Amino acid sequence: MTNDKKFDLICSCLDHAIKENDDKLPLETQRGTKINLVKRENGNYKIVFNTEKKTYEAITKDNLYKFLFEGWRGNETLGREDGRITLFETIHQYIQSHCDITIELKKQPLLKLTPLNQILYGPPGTGKTYNTITKALAIIDGTVSTDRKEAKAKFEEYRKSGQIEFITFHQSYGYEEFVEGIRAIPVGEEGNEDGNEMIYAVKDGIFKKMSKKSLENYTKKSNPVLNKKKFALHAKTLNIQAEMIEDDANTYRVLKGSKIRKGQAPSFDNYNYIELKNKVLKQAKLREETEFYILEEDYVFQSMSAASSVILGRQSNGYNDWKEIASENNLFGKIDSDQEKRNYILIIDEINRGNISKIFGELITLIEPSKRIGADEAIRLRLPYSNEEFGVPQNLYIIGTMNTADRSIALMDTALRRRFHFEEMMPDLEALNDKTPEGIDLKKILTKINQRIEYLYDRDHTIGHAYFIDVRSKEDLDDVMRNKIFPLLQEYFYDDWEKIRMVLGDGFIDKIEVKSDIFDDEKFIYSIKKSFDYTKLQS
User: Fold this and answer.
1) Residues 6 or more apart from 138 whose CB is under 8 A from it?
2) Nearest Cα to Cα of residue 50 among 75, 67, 28, 72
3) Which DSSP category does 340 fall into?
4) Three-state DSSP class for 521?
5) CB–CB of 109/126 below 8 Å?
6) pLDDT tens, 459-495?
7) How crowded is residue 124: how many other Cβ atoms within 10 Å of its Cβ?
């Protein structure tokens, strides 16, 4: 029996038990807390606490499914101390003892949970970008090949298929490239194939495209729970036709091409639908005809009756006017219950080089785990250019990299910082074990350099191991020191050569006193030696 089939039986068992107990199934947690399991109008569940204060916890079917079958142990919306995992475990105990189905929970430590939004931060050369490949593959496949070539080949495969996107922020990068914006479309290009002149249209940015793609997969995977239906409305006397999909108990999506009557019957005013109609006319993308409007994009109503009342211009209870024409299976094709749930990854390299607050816009709220589509407190917002309802699904992961030598995380605003999980990546000296080209101990050299930088500057400006990882000879090492380390130190210390000399020592810089009558104090000229001596750096 497939997990989806088991879950259907579990929900039937819980629904029956709730109904048999006057809509409140009494349960008791391992800690002895008395609670009630209640069915919500949208098909999900909630835990109502037996306390004077009326509080409850939402239990979505999606999360219950993941808890029972996918080793889900909560996400960032669940703190370790809030006890909601205990509530899920209590439901599991009831299922085991009353539903005649055995489910062995896959215990997954909370520490191993992968955050939806994470930033790898640290000094330059510490492998942040390098590790994004490993992390992206771990999120998608669960495992990563130890062979780097195989891992990169797999990464490229996912990138070409659109499951992974890699972008780099820079100072000119904006909301219009990331989310959506108005762009010029020359003749012959997509969106203006048959035009005679350049047009301007709203185009999706990289993040919106990724969200749509991941939402499509997420929605299909969730369809068995949502149980979609399609309806049609035909009012011949009014010449009104419309189609609608019931996405869930609170989402009735009237499809593009449907008509909305301009006129209205007296009952329309009596039931105060005029306010709702005005809202639709303001928000929806419409084309106006003589007797009706035509939707140019799908529009979401919160009830079936509201949709048909606005469309017909008269009071409607919904059920008499909408006729079901397709259920989930024949509407969307046969849903493959074993269809793979995919995770999508957006990698943003150098995330702190862009104006993050400006680029993300309203996404600052939407990327929050508790606000993602499918979460307890999921929300959608209307985008400013397209006027579309937009939300971010739970299977879209954001991985950013941040060079602390450019900008410290302390300078990021609090609203942004609290929505990301920050993982520090410092120089990995162990990666240089056994790296001794021509007897020069690279680990000791980097250790000494970083100790001095940290003393003179700070730990955010230390030097990463990646600079030395490919060194095979003294010639290679000289090249790295002369062409990479020296310029980096010049930038760090603003060409203060005395400090650079303090970091590297006498083996790299000549310091010659200027003998002159011009200056009262001692003055020196610094120059980089033609040949480097690493002896003191290894001591």
Assistant:
1) 114, 144
2) 28
3) P
4) coil
5) no
6) 889 999 999 999 999 999 999 999 999 999 999 999 8
7) 19
